Amino acid sequence: MAALACTQSNQQTPTLFLPDTTAYRGYYVAGHEVRAFHPCDQIGPRWLVDSTDGVLDDAFAELVGGALPYDSIFFVVRGRMTSRINDGFAADYSGALVVTELRRAEGEGLGCNDVSPGVFKAFGNEPFWSLEMSPDTFAFVRLGEPALTFAVNDREPADGRWMFRGTGVEAGLDRIGVEVNERRCVDGMSGARFSYTVRVDLNDEPYLGCGRRPF
């Protein structure tokens, strides 16, 4: 066990637990003459240019569910900030955000207030479960049951894929395995979009869901 602990301490922290500094977080509001992105850092709204081949607009349309225009949806996106576009309604904004990738879209939740440094969160339905992962410990919860805490004793990072294994802290009898893949995931209950699929094997019982990185 001592040798294993030494190996773990020498490994770099997986990117899953680090803030995505390449992404912008905020609320997107759309209507006839409005395509406004309001960043969480309150730098002021930006005109949004969708360069995702319609992925962003499709997600917005589905999440508002036929509601009135000018509803807001929480987005995490990648792209670039540009100067003012001096044309049409975009000219009313001090700058623009050209979005090239949609990383997360939610109509419900904490939005900009969802800040958990160093914690990767995963969740799924039928049955409802959640998982909070830090580099050294996991906390797994099934609806209506006490949380199970695990010590991470092995991890295998790869390009766009991570494997973790752990044992229960209390009695050491429970075993957990977690596989995270960087690929599009849609929550079956809410329709929210995420960028990670997650499979949890708890004592060989599988749980499937989505995950999100910390900010």
What order do the helices and strands come in, and which of them pair?
Layout: H1 2-10, E1 23-30, E2 35-39, E3 46-50, H2 55-64, E4 72-83, E5 95-106, E6 120-124, E7 129-133, E8 137-142, E9 148-158, E10 161-168, E11 175-181, E12 185-186, E13 193-194, E14 196-202, E15 205-212
Parallel strand pairs: 3-5
Antiparallel strand pairs: 1-2, 1-4, 2-3, 4-5, 6-7, 6-15, 7-8, 8-9, 9-10, 10-11, 11-14, 12-13, 14-15
Largest beta-sheet characterization: 8 strands, antiparallel, barrel
Content of β-strand: over 45%
Instruction: List the total number of helices.
Output: 2
Overall pLDDT level: 87
Distance N to C terminus: 33 Å
Rg over C-alpha atoms, rounded to the nearest angstrom: 20 Å
Give me the strand/helix succession: HEEEHEEEEEEEEEEEE
Low-confidence stretches: 1-10
Strand element count:
15
What is the spatial order of strands in the main beta sheet? 6-7-8-9-10-11-14-15
In one word, what is the shape? Answer: elongated
Structural class: mainly beta
